[in-house]
């Protein structure tokens, strides 16, 4: 990686962490999904995966280590991989908003699976059922946030990526 890529990964990881913290007072409303969708759609797979991994590592430093860490190290890179694979097929903010909504709706189910490995399937099922209302809020808010902010933020990122590559 070039030095400017390393700096870019650090800055965008920090921006993602700051964005998450800025909205942390609203349960299950976050901007992280939007950021990773934009990063994967504009920066490519490699840079976006590094951003996701640095973001998750930063989260561990802030919140400590527990079973959620495994889910975070899987789910955020998975979102980046999905968007990278679909970016040629998805042509509008509506497509990305649907992906973001589905991601939010199934977020708790994914973590229920990872929790089941540690505490058993009954716990995992109870974990998922207990969080369904949060998943509904998460999915709906992801849809709205991506629908409203994807286009303008993607445009800004594309301009900055062009500048980065011409400098």
How would the blueprint of this fold be written?
Elements lengths: L2 H20 L9 H11 L2 H19 L4 H19 L6 H27 L1 H10 L1 H35 L1
Helix pairs in contact: 1-3, 2-3, 2-4, 2-7, 3-4, 4-5, 5-6, 5-7
**What distance separates the N and C termini?**
16 Å
Instruction: Compute the number of helices.
Output: 7
Fraction of residues in helix: over 70%
User: What sort of overall outline do the alpha carbons produce when their principal axes are compared?
Assistant: globular
What do these coordinates show?
- The protein has seven helices and no strands.
- The chain is globular and about 55 Å long.
- The chain is mostly helical and 167 residues long.
- The protein has one domain: Orthogonal Bundle (Arp2/3 complex 21 kDa subunit ARPC3), CATH 1.10.1760.20.
Features:
single chain; 167 residues; mainly alpha; Arp2/3 complex 21 kDa subunit ARPC3; 7 helices; globular
């Amino acid at each position: 990686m070039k030095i400017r890529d390393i700096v870019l990964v650090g800055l965008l990881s920090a921006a993602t962490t700051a964005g998450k913290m800025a909205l942390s007072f609203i349960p299950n409303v976050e901007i992280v999904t939007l950021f990773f969708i934009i990063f994967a759609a504009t920066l490519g797979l490699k840079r976006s995966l590094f951003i996701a991994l640095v973001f998750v590592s930063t989260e561990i430093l802030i919140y400590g280590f527990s079973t959620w860490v495994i889910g975070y190290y899987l789910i955020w890179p998975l979102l980046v991989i999905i968007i990278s694979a679909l970016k040629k097929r998805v042509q509008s903010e509506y497509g990305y908003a649907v992906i973001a909504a589905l991601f939010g709706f199934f977020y708790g189910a994914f973590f229920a699976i990872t929790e089941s490995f540690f505490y058993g399937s009954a716990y995992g099922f109870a974990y998922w059922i207990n969080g369904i209302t949060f998943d509904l809020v998460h999915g709906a808010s992801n849809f709205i946030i991506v629908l409203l902010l994807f286009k303008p933020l993607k445009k800004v990122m594309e301009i900055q990526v062009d500048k980065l590559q011409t400098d």
